[in-house]
Amino acid sequence: MSEEVVFYHNPMSRGRMVHWMLEEIGVPYRIELVSFDKGEHKKAAFLAVNPMGKIPTIVHRGTAVTETGAAGIPEPSCHACAADEILEAL
Ligand SMILES: N[C@@H](CCC(=O)N[C@@H](CS)C(=O)NCC(=O)O)C(=O)O
């Protein structure tokens, strides 16, 4: 199972909040841009990741997180220090 955090994003979406959070906590991640104009969010390749066809989506350790409010906080066990900083800030 991959340790990589993959962030499916479109800059014209609420994914910007998740992008901001990932940058703030310094978690390594890879962005996969999903074009609304090209309808990529409703194509099979992305629906296999998130059947709702919505952005943002984060995939980590085989699990897709599809809610903005949840996607912004990665699993604490992976990035303990960063997660601790977030929890202290809340
Ligand atoms: N409940 C989700 C909703 C995500 C959502 O609706 N994203 C919009 C962009 S901001 C989207 O993907 N729209 C494309 C569509 O619904 O076709 C969340 O808050 O993250």
List keywords for this structure.
90 residues; alpha+beta; Glutaredoxin; 4 helices; globular; binds glutathione
Question: How would you characterize this protein structure?
Answer:
The chain is α+β, with helices and mostly antiparallel strands. It has one domain (6-89): 3-Layer(aba) Sandwich (Glutaredoxin), CATH 3.40.30.10. 32% of the residues lie in helices and 17% in strands. It has four helices and four strands, in the order E-H-E-H-E-E-H-H. It has helices spanning 15-25, 44-47, 68-71, 80-89; strands spanning 6-9, 30-33, 57-60, 63-65. The protein has a four-stranded mixed β-sheet. The model is unreliable at 76-81 and 83-87 (pLDDT under 50).
Summarize the amount of helix as a percent range: 25-40%
- In CATH, the homologous superfamily goes by the name Glutaredoxin
Bound molecules: glutathione
Number of strands: 4
- The helix/strand series, from N terminus to C terminus, equals EHEHEEHH
- Report the biggest beta sheet as strand number plus sense, adding barrel if it closes: 4 strands, mixed
Overall CATH architecture: 3-Layer(aba) Sandwich
The domain tally reads 1
The proportion of residues in beta strands is 15-25%
- Give the termini separation: 30 Å
Spatial arrangement of strands, main beta sheet:
2-1-3-4
> Can you give the mean pLDDT?
83
Helical run tally: 4
Name the poorly predicted regions: 76-81, 83-87
